[in-house]
Amino acid sequence: MIERLLPVAGSEHAVAFDAVLKSVHAHIAIQALAWGTFLVFCLIRFRSSRQPQASHRGIAPVLPMFAIAVVIVGDVVLLATMALPAWLARATMPSSVLAATEVRIAAEQFAWNIHYPGPDRRFGVTSAALISASNPVGIDRTSPDGTDDVGLLNVLMVPVGRPVVVQLSSRDVVHSFTLNEMRVRQDATPGLLVRTWFTPTITGQWQIACSQLCGLAHYRMRGEFSVLSQPGWDEWLRREVALIPPEAGLR
Ligand SMILES: [Cu+2]
């Protein structure tokens, strides 16, 4: 049932994360039910007409001890068998960055500036002085690796089936880069370059969202996010490179 409440699980780690989420909620629901039942029992058992004088006697101490033991054992089991393995798998970056698709994303009020390294898979030099409407990430086209780089505003395209490594930064305040379907959420903090990653398992069209209240127009800090087939993504990148304006980013 919970699957219908969640966005589609579109990345490799999404299944493990959803399993943790469901187990934690089941654990909490069982505890809430047990403690709720205990409370109702106490209200009836120790009602004033039956017991006018308050007393702590009458409840076997084994019952609350058992309830506390269930909480502790349940938490330890959840941590050891689900949460820690899921976190460890996420905390380890893909062993081969060469096999991954890398993008740099600079968040700003209220947009995502996305820098693709282009077919040579190497990022060219960028400069704040070169930022313009046609060059949102300020790519220096005279730098050796910068001739085929693609800079786009609010458009994130990635291929399916390979790890995507995102190098995330912010130009102003704290934002939070969110891809709900990939179960990805990472703060973008000014002065820090943080990496996050995911491996998409399905193709589709969704949105980038900002999950940190970052200013008056936070609500419209959205971007287009698509997972394409590998041939579809290769073709998209080829077309984007062909569209690079000849004058943009030349010093
Ligand atoms: Cu934001």
Structural summary, described in words:
- Helix content is 31%, strand content 23%.
- The chain has 251 residues and is of the alpha+beta class.
- The protein has two domains: 2-91; 97-242, Immunoglobulin-like.
- A five-stranded mixed sheet has the order 3-2-1-5-8.
- Strand 1 and strand 2 form a beta hairpin.
- The termini are far apart.
- The model has no long low-confidence stretch (mean pLDDT 89).
- The structure holds copper (II) ion.
- The site of copper (II) ion has 7 residues, from loops.
Quick structural summary:
The protein is 31% helix and 23% strand.
Helical content, roughly? 25-40%
The CATH superfamily title of the largest domain: Cupredoxins -  blue copper proteins
In what range is the share of β-strand residues?
Answer: 15-25%
Number of strands: 10
Bound molecules: copper (II) ion
What is the average of the pLDDT values? 89
Major β-sheet annotation: 5 strands, mixed
User: Class of the largest domain, according to the CATH hierarchy?
Assistant: Mainly Beta
Count of separate DSSP helical elements: 4
Main β-sheet, spatial strand arrangement: 3-2-1-5-8
Give start-end ranges of low-pLDDT stretches.
Answer: none
Instruction: Domain count, please report it.
Output: 2
Alpha carbon gyration radius: 25 Å
- Distance between the amino and carboxyl termini: 57 Å
CATH topology grouping of the largest domain: Immunoglobulin-like
The CATH level-2 architecture of the largest domain is identified as Sandwich
User: Which structural class do you get from the secondary structure elements?
Assistant: alpha+beta
Which descriptor suits the 3D outline? elongated
